[in-house]
Amino acid sequence: MTAEPIGEVVWAPDLVKQRKAGYTIEDVLALPDEAPRVELSDGVLIVVPSPSARHQKLNWRLASWLERHVPKGFEPQMAVGVAVDYTSTLEPDVLILHGPVDPDRHYFSPDQVVVAVEIVSPGTKRRDRLEKPGVYAAAGIQHFWRIELNPVHVFAYDLVDGRYELVADANDELVLEKPFEIRLPIRELAP
Asked: Which segment of the chain is annotated as a signal peptide (predicted)?
């Protein structure tokens, strides 16, 4: 048995379209299977780096815990996106959506999003801490959680007058009343 040779990367962004910031959500939906995971920022494709094993473990544990504990009418999801507008999309680590959710959709509108969660990784620090919160706030997403690793610490924000205000931060247990009462056992979820 012989191994097949690895060929060149089949897909890469169209440089002209990228320079003109000409990509749309339709282009993202039409990407081939071998294309990397991307976000769309004002018509420019941004490749989303693969998360570390620690990041993925926390992401999976958080989504699983939320699946068991959020009230009826809310649906946690991971590996789905937010269609901010025709030329901008985001791929948060976890979303809590107003349910029921169409299981065949990848992108959801900001008005369907209850909470957007970003787990900060070394390759996404700037975007997760500085850029994405502003985009989520401008889109009207009412609640945003930022999770730092090493050690795990959760910062929860509510949208107030168009910008996020910190309402809680914890490294042991996150206690919130909005968008629903929650006591998130952070230490149990930390990898």
From this structure: none
Read off the pLDDT of residues 68-90 as tens digits, 9 standing for 90 and up.
999 999 999 999 999 999 999 99
d(CA 103, CA 112): 14
* Nearest residue to 25 (alpha-carbon basis) of 77, 85, 102, 79: 85
Is 159 within 8 Å of 134 (Cβ atoms)? no
172: CB partners within 8 A, 6+ apart = 186, 187
CATH fold label, 53-189 = tt1808, chain A (3.90.1570)
Domain ranges for the chain: 53-189
112-158 residue pLDDT tens: 999 999 999 988 899 999 999 999 999 999 999 999 998 999 999 99
Q: Rounded to whole angstroms, how far apart are CA atoms 122 and 154?
A: 16
The span from the CA of 46 to the CA of 40, in Å, is 6
Q: What's the whole-model pTM score?
A: 0.91
Q: Residue 167: left if φ>0, alpha if ψ -120 to 50, beta else—which one? A: alpha
